[in-house]
Amino acid sequence: xxxxxxxxxxxxxxxxxxxxxxxxxxxxxxxxxxxxxxxxxxxxxxxxxxxxxxxxxxxxxxxxxxxxxxxxxxxxxxxxxxxxxxxxxxxxxxxxxxxxxxxxxxxxxxxxxxxxxxxxxxxxxxxxxxxxxxxxxxxxxxxxxxxxxxx
Length: 151
Hints:
Blueprint: H1 13-19, H2 23-26, H3 31-49, H4 62-80, H5 87-107, H6 145-148
Helix pairs in contact: 3-4, 3-5, 4-5
């Protein structure tokens, strides 16, 4: 059974600055607020990951960095107060909802984040499922893709 380690953050303040949104949005928060939000967001992510991997992780991909930033962005918006007149904030809330679903899929082994290496000593990516080949069947004779998908 994987174990839970002390807090691990998957994104830095610089990642937040580069990925969270427009400079005016990012600059509306202090570095301390961003660091605290990233730490809280990482604990949400760790909760899902720890059901499958031994924490702390030694390596992870950009998807976990984005998840960490987007959850932190959501937490900061909620602490400041949601602005219903700002369409960007509505999109940020939607992003958070999507990430929560992905974290649930991670915990239930329906999604595997990129480049995971845990601290179990196993070979890198050993816990990732094998790739499933996809086969595309040709269109039946006498048809084309354009005619098959017209309304």
